[in-house]
Amino acid sequence: MNPAKLREILRDEVAAIHPRLILMKVRSRFASGALRGLYFAQLLRRAGFTLGARTTVLGLPRITGSDAPSHAPHGAILYDKLQIGDDVVLDTGIVLDLEARITIGNRVLVGPEVMILTSTHELGPRERRAGEIICSPVIIEDGVWIGARSVILPGVTIGAGAVVNPGAVVNKDVPANTRVSGTPAKKVESFEPVE
Predict the structure, then answer these.
(1) Residue 74 is a catalytic residue
(2) In the predicted model, what is the mean pLDDT of residues 51-57?
(3) pLDDT at residue number 124
């Protein structure tokens, strides 16, 4: 193998190592008691993520993503790709795929074991169906409630005041003040907007 190719492979492999995330996981072992949610939020802030005031994190999310130039648009680093607003509650077992940006508004509740994904693959030839990686940001607007074990797929925007029922797979935008359910998620109810 030529040295240039070897350097490229090594750079891509090392780009997936995030020392601040490793340190955050080690520090999380010392959390206990009623203040765990605030402690975990503080750990995320210290790692470099942006979390708003009074945001509670009940269990450290599993965070994946890359700083590799091929996956980081405009030179964005992993820690720049997560924006969480005020008064948000992140429950336990959440997975955040930060290949692209995830924006979570204010007063959002994300239930246990929710997956928010920002990357997928193009459909490749039969020799390898998982083709080139495609990254698309996810936006969750203010006041949203995402039920347990839901999956939010790349490129989705969930409108303000929407509800995603538990176990739903959201592959399209969800209008504001709408409840969706199922696989794939479909509208089951509309709410009157609060004035």
Answers:
(1) no
(2) 94
(3) 85
